[in-house]
Fold these 4 entries.
Entry 1:
Amino acid sequence: MNTKIYKGLIISIALTTLASCATIMGNSAPETLNVRSTPDQARVIITDESGTKIFEGKTPTSLPLEKKKGYFSGKKYDVRILKDGYDEQIVTVDTKVGGWYVGNILFGGLLGLLIIDPATGAMWTLDTNEVNVTFNALKQGELIAPNSANIVLLQDVPSELHDKLIEIPQ
């Protein structure tokens, strides 16, 4: 009889402890996003789903991003990366339900499933922790400032401008 009571007590404690799996096993704290570009020193502007500017800086950079927007809703960010002479790059960083949140279903943690993890934001994780951008081509139609020169590879010059190239004697 005592072993049944002890087993029941151990199972009850385990289920209570795991009642909010994502909060215990995951993390409600902001996650770090790493932003890099080739070439580096590109301008980075991060805005959230409401259009509010969250960050502005240069690559490479790392910054913490909140995962929770509200109760049962995760954040979404647009990462704009700009560099003079190159096309602007925009990468969307979204949130998704983390794997530990599903543990609430498996271990019977309704309290964690419906209240704790959604309220703390522990149910969310960023869909990526890395944004890597490689700038390849010059912007279409961008003019070079007077009395200046840019050196580029022929493969980076748009094909419609090839007939306007001038060979400079050595």
Note: The beta strands are 31-38, 43-48, 53-58, 61-65, 68-70, 73-74, 76-82, 89-97, 124-126, 130-134.
Entry 2:
Amino acid sequence: MKKTLMALGTMAMLGSTANAQKVAFEEFDLDNGLHVVLHQDDSAPVIITSVMYHVGAKDEQPNRTGFAHFFEHLLFEGTKNIGKGEWFKLVTSNGGNNNANTSDDRTYYYEVFPSNNLELAIWMESERLMHPVIDQKGVDTQNEVVKEEKRLRIDNSPYGNLLKAVKQNMFKVHPYKWTTIGEMEHLDAATLEEFKAFNKKFYIPNNAVLVVAGQFDNAQAKTWIKKYFGAIPKGEPIKRQKFEEAPITTTINATWEDPNVQIPMTVTAYRTPSMKTKDARVLDMISSYLSEGKSSKLYKKMVDEKKVALQVNAFNYSQEDYGTYFIFGLPMGDVTSETLIKEIDEEIVNIQNNLISENDFQKLQNKFENNYVTSNSTVEGIAENLASYYLLYGDINLVNTEIEIYRSITREDIKEVAKKYLNPNQRLILNYGPAKEKTAK
């Protein structure tokens, strides 16, 4: 009976994927190097205009971290033709919404408008690129905004510095060793000329991709894109330094004290390959197998059955150059870090030495088929996927074909990738705990 239900579930999932509409798109380059992608979707009268720039935290200098994230805020300050503080008013008064986000690898801006506001959306993004106003007043204003964000999300948030604690131990030469939000003293020390230089270097059409998605007239969209973006000068080609990390061959042991936590966290982290590789996708599957949902191996064993952990999780933090594979747990009561690591390692060794069951493998396939359908289920999701696959992966067609990579993964691949990357001598063990009370002298 169980096998029958599983087979029916699989057929339903495969059917939904097979019926998922292929993402059609058109792409072309302007003379200034801006890559343009158009995706028409008439299911709703909305349009998304987004621009992704190939600049993130890894493009910063070691003594000027946080610049990429800072610009995510700064470039909403206004432009030559959009007054200070008017950007958001202009968007909302025309029935739209907008946002932006930054990673170590890229910065992404987007607007969502009713479809009759396409020209406005295209003009606004061209203004951000062509006529940004970068002055001391705007820098000072956004400096305070970023500081408050860091206080709320990082400094005063339980486990808020977890990523920083891991990154600074996992990477010795690569800029991934610092966090996206950066250090506030670096922003405080920066001059206005340095901010202007950063903008001039990275915010150029030949370092970006523009995506227009939704309900629009194709010919009209092209006319407006060429009108508003075509006159923007091409920037100097960006020379990117390549950083290569030496392999980790001996366990790294580290600690971090956090005054905002009461329960210590045990973290193991492994350096993994670029998100562009098939191995990165296999690691995604291993993460899901280990800790996604209450029926996952680590959760069921450590939280439900043995009750040694309050929480346990595994995830593959994939990035353009390298990835970091995390497994972390919060102990139950007086359970030690050594006990948590022992329980986690047993499951990893089991994956390395034995093929996972056919039933578990089928569940993984179903999950990733569903993830694929979901990621392309909204126009906003499609727009970001198109930008990411073009700019970061170098293969925009992955918007339709990446699922084939996941489908090609076998149980043997899972076993071999676990053997290749998830070994004790290749990892960081981080004890992230409460701040210790200082003994009075």
Note: The chain has a mean pLDDT of 94.
Entry 3:
Amino acid sequence: MGKTLKPGVTIKGTKDGLFFFLDDSRPFSDVLADLKEKLENSHAAHIWDGPDLNVIIKLGKRQITKAEEIAVRELFSVRKNLIIQEFESDDIPYLLGGEQDLVIKSGTVRSGQVLIHKGNLLFLGDVNPGGTIQCTGSIYVLGALRGLAHAGCEGDTNAIIVASVLRPTQLRIADVISRPPDKWDESEIGMRFAYMIDNQIVVERIHHLGQLKPELEWKEGRRHF
């Protein structure tokens, strides 16, 4: 008989709210898939649709990047009464994958406007067609990206672009420019991220983010612009 895997996510209630324990021995993509299933499970409606509950995410010994944190927060967005208070690690500091300089800005980037930022940017809002975000680091848009996004504009090929709704007129990472398809498949919903490999910009569903390694050995399911 095969070894039974521990659940990717374990939930425990406390008098102050809920603890979500993310198994640090499983691939992060598996943990995200398990978390998504649990949060969308209608059988738990008596919890999910109840009063507001504070949530603490327990990471174990795992270190996560800012993009992975955003992926978790995006999954929780379907349950408005579950309010993430913090992420906690057991024995090591909670690190953000080298992105401690992440700055949060909010608003709307309208047509003709250009938002320029040095470092990594978390933008809470929409980027409209004709609008531009340009960063020396990575770009995270919690909203619709329908304009132009240029990450790693000073040559950082490891920068990524993440958006809740990824429908850009153009993506740029470092000096690589990529145009989207003439018509978007509107049936494709959910957060996505773009990164560069083999001098091309590739777009993936957000749950693949945990598989993204420096060596980028995995090759299935890539969507090239």
Note: Confidence is low (pLDDT under 50) at residues 92-99, 213-225.
Entry 4:
Amino acid sequence: MYHLKSRTPMGQLNSFRKDPLAFLERGLDTGEDVVRFRLANKRVTLIMDPDLIKQVLVVKEDAFQRFKPYKELAPLLGQGLLLSEKPLHKQQRKIVQPSFTPRHILTYGEEMRRKTIDSLRGWGKKEKRLLSDDFMSLTLEIIASTMFGADVLDGKEQVGRSLEEAMELITKRVRSFFKAPKFIKTKENQQFQKAIDTLDEVIMKIILNRKKTGNRSNDLLDTLLYSQDSEGHRMSDRQLRDEVMTIFLAGHETTATALTWTMYLLLTHPESYLKLQAEVDELCREEVPTMEEIKEMTFMRDVFLESMRLYPPAWLINRMPIENIQVGDVGLRTGETIMISPYLMHRHPAYFDNPEKFIPARFKQGKLLNVPDFVYFPFGGGSRICVGKHFAMTESMILLGALIKNFHFTLSDIEYIPEKFPLVTLRMKDGLLVHSERRF
């Protein structure tokens, strides 16, 4: 175990706030599996041993709860699946999980294809595009359509702006030691509330439209509306809103972020780009790949998984012990902060040769060989593993295949080196600006 020392009252807080990824990499550079430091008055334990990570996320998960500062997300996500604790979390996950089974995803695949076709037909023959925004827009349309039977075409730009503003303000509050209570009408608090009000308006319109028509549909919204607990009670309006908001936002933000990093890596590794293009051209008979075709696109899967190794959207997982507990030979105190970083583990030199390099060949048929569990875990683990994991993989491969099939891309600036922007997800700070040209 290594202790990062600090003689200031704020401990390592300023260093962490300035550049969280660089700060955490200092922990990796110590060569130790457990690193302790202080963020102001809070003791933090950074764990980088896969066995200990498994203990926290799986074996002894009932002894931990979510990181309290992430309650800053509560005005946005409420007690939805991302923030709720047991037993509510277990109950809600049981309701949501069936909508993400392979059988359901098979039906969603056709809607994903339809939305992608409609979107790409609006692109020009040759133009400059901010591809990161395109991904955000298209994944937003897809999650709204597949999960909630809704069309958000008219309001998607406003939703995108509100989401981005809310995420930045939440991140700032999470990392701040001193922050104004939400009831004080500071400029930032008012901006935050305005963003939430905008998103609420979209969400409630979707819910109320379905209730008004009374139409039944084989989608997640229908499941949420008509599910009942053991006593026959349906979900409250507030809980319904929270679950819809959580799936609506988390269901497109993470996928769009992962796709943006994937395209950047392909554009800076032309040999992989050309290999992927050859695979898509060989297997994809139409303008957008089918569900059967993406099953055969093994190199595309390896590319996407390797991209999430280098740039996992969920770059940091935090837990807090609800009791004093021993994990391996590490003693953890009630209420201290436990940090687990997929970003660090995915780049751990003990498990990866040339960990900073993009090498899709690390994966074979979608599997990473010769590494223990919880070295590579872009979707998290335990009972909180991402409920939409297979949905996200399917959507990503359909979108990526469609882009590679129909367009040739180059970076707008061939020397562009993106800045990592670790908000709630690991974004690309200024997005991905590209030149696109239709191939056919």
Note: The longest helix spans residues 237-267.
